[in-house]
Amino acid sequence: MSRMVGRRELLAGGLALGATFALPRPLFARKADGYPAPDLEKMVPVEGGRVYVRVNGKLDGAKPPIVMLHGGPGGDHEHFMPAVALADERAVILYDQLDSGQSDRPNDPKNWRVERFVDEIELVRKALGVDRWHLLGHSWGGTLALEYGARRPAALRGLALASPLVSTRSWIADANALRGQLPADVQAEIASCDKGPSRVCDDGVNAFYRAYNGREPAKPAAIAYAGAHPNGFNPKLYNAMWGPSEFACTGSLKDYDGEPLLARLDGRRTIFLGGQYDEARPTTLAGFAACVPGAEYATIPGSAHGIFADRTLETVALIRGWLARQDAKS
Fold first, then answer.
1. What does CATH list as the number for 7-175+219-329?
2. Considering 70, 77, 134, 305, which one is annotated as catalytic?
3. How far apart are CA 319 and CA 316, in angstroms?
4. Is 278 a catalytic residue?
């Protein structure tokens, strides 16, 4: 659920498919961030507006592309930039969900529905002309990946659920279990949040994030890329769907339960993964994986929730190996 920095710190439809749209200019203020420029950028019409899509690699290559769904709700594709390294073998598709990142921001709550965000995935696929692909969803993106995988779309060749929000109930339970492992003074600071926002509350929550959200300092490339993309996180969307606190959901996702969907997944095509110190605890993810016969499960040593940021090389290598195994099944 969390972005890779503390969330409290950050705290139009009617378009026909196939039409041509100009990208906003300048879309990016290009900086020397070390990441390769996209081979394709596109604004794709979806219900409620348009979403920004970037592609590295060849969409018509021999190996199916991989598309990655970012967290939030209200995050952006930035956390996945290290994964463009995979473009030496296949196309890597990243996009910002509606009302997030570089996509249109109508900020209309009627668009903030799980099913609309899931429908968005297929519209991106069709707009790019991709007939088969792998999909990875991280955190809230894992919710969308779960929902999409449960539909059993013909195009789906592999499904990776990375540190996913599978149910709000399990997410809150994990957050409270991890909170109980922190020093007593930090727990007291977090408890003060029940009385309302305060400096003490922020100190406690930020300590929680340092332990379980992101354990490593941001890399220069990530800082430069974020600076070149000032329209990143959307707190309005996040607060409407989740709420202001890590430890209680007050938004529209408060009763979300995707656990019954696990039975609909194709275990041969599915992997669950997360960090050793993840907000989505390893024991919880392993339990979800056990509900999907044949599914793989992996823990990334030393990483918290921000797996691509905390352990970049290990995470990319893990995904690369999993993709190769999936390709061999095609």
1. 3.40.50.1820
2. 305
3. 5
4. yes
Q: In what order do the strands lie in the sheet with 296-300?
A: 40-46, 49-56, 92-95, 66-69, 133-138, 156-162, 270-275, 296-300
Residue 305 designated active-site? yes
Clarify whether 2 is annotated catalytic: no
| pTM, entire model | 0.91
Helix axes 282-290, 168-179, angle to 10 degrees: 150
Residue ranges per structural domain of the chain = 7-175+219-329
Selected catalytic residue, list 103, 139, 170, 245: 139
CA torsion angle for 248, 251, 252, 255 (degrees, to 10)? 20
Q: Which residue out of 76, 104, 278, 310 is catalytically annotated?
A: 278
Per-residue pLDDT tens digits for 227-280: 888 888 999 999 999 998 888 899 999 999 999 999 999 999 999 999 999 999
